[in-house]
Every structure is written in structure tokens, then in C-alpha cells.
Sequence to fold (284 residues):
Amino acid sequence: MTTLPSVQNDEAVATVVIRGADSRWSLQWPDLWRHRELLYFLAWRDIKVRYKQTVLGVAWVVLQPLAIALSLNLFLGRLVGKYSGDLPYPVFVYSGMVVWQLFAQALIESSNSLLASQHLISKVYFPRLLVPVSTILSSLLDFVVSLFVLALFLITFHIVPTASIVLFPFMALLAAMVALGLGFWLSALNVKYRDVRYTVSFLVQFWFLATPIAYPSGIVPERWRVWYELNPMVGVVNGFRWTLHGSGTFPAREVAISVCVAMAFFLSGLYYFKRTEDNFADFI
Fold:
């Protein structure tokens, strides 16, 4: 039996014991809730650092996908524009770029998040999951800003959303979930293997070409279609576009595959992150 040391004025001695998670699958909701203010602080810090000392500031959120969409429309509009279905090709491309920008930015930021917060991780205890999650929140805020330009596209081309718009938030959250699941994996690996930061840039560029942003997925040969749809962003992008007009057939199979792959990324990434988080401070 351990005897507590006597304290003058009969004041109780407060002891804080930090233990590892009982389960590597556990999100430790009580602990995350107690540190919710830190999550807001980290997300706000990411936003301020991203646009610090920039002339245009948050306008870059709009200019980047808009510039790429206009470039694709200029060089590929006549070539593949006739295959864009019910959406005019400019709307087709920009709507794909909006949801892609959410995914790509969230993936890049989350994969580097632990190294960017190494001064906190090595000195203070808090749930490490908050670090990659905060980057997703800041990316979602940028996504909301870019939606204003998307609304202007819809107004310009006289596209009136239907009841299908109710699935709009689901598609955005699905893109964020794919990025977060991979972010768990890559941020944990990046702590030990610093080559990851260079690999992510290449991965995002290749993934962009493998996603139906500049072209419709219908041009992919049927024999390769199932393998192609294993890319979770195929279902996300096509489902996101469908929510804007609601005509045609909902890409149910593509979205279902995206949900399954996103869950696989999220659960496996969560397990690996929780398994390795006790060693983050040692490598950082």
C-alpha cells in the first residue's frame, strides 16, 4: 500500500495519471471532448498560417480550383466537353475541382500535421488524433468558401438544384473521410519516415489523373470499370455532381464502393495511428 505524503493545511494532492488507450480502435470520446477547445485552436491556427503574409489571402481558395478548371475548359473543352452529360463542361470541371480541392488539401495538410505540431507533441499531453482532425476542419472551411463560386456557375448556366441537393453534404463529408483515413496513415508514417512528405505530392498528382475531373468516367472501358471505381474519389466526384442537378441515374454502385473503401481507410488508419502514437514524441 502506498501512503500519500502529508500536506500542510490538509490540502488534497491532485495526481494525474496518463495511460495508453485501452483499445487501439477507441476514439476516446471523453478525452476528445475535454480537449475540444484545443481542436478549434488548432484548426484556426492552420487557417491563419496558411494565408499569413499573402496578398490575396483566402481568395486563393477560389483562384486555385478556378484557374485549373478554366485551363481544362480551354484545352479539353472541345475534346471531351460533349461527353459531360447533363452538366455544361465548365460546371462539370469546376464542380469536380471543388470537391477534389477539399480532398487533396485535407490529405496533404493532415499527412504533415504531426510534424507541423511537433513542438506541442513533444512537450504537452493531449489526444494526438486532434492534430490531423483539425486540418480536416480547416479544409472544410475553405470548401465552404469555394461553394460561393460554384453557386455563381449554377446561376450562370441556369442550373436549378433539385431534391437531390440534400445528399450534397454527405458527398463532401465522404471526401473528407477518405482524406482523414489516409491522413491517419500518412501522418503516423511521416513521423518515422520523412520521405512520406515527398511521396504525398506525387500521390496527389497521380490520383488527380485517375479521378474523373477533366473527363467523365464513362469513357473508361467497361472491362476496367470495376477496378477504376476502387478509387473512392470516383464515387465522390460523380455523386457530388449528381447532387447538383439530380437528373439521370444516381451512381449508386460507385458511391457504395467509395463508402466501403473510405471506411477501410478510416478504420485501418485509426488502428495504425493509435498503435504508434505512444512513440511519436520519441521520433519527433
About this structure: The CA atoms of residues 16 and 125 lie 11 Å apart. Residues 130-156 form the longest helix (27 residues). Residues 1-13 have pLDDT under 50 and may be disordered. The radius of gyration is 22 Å.
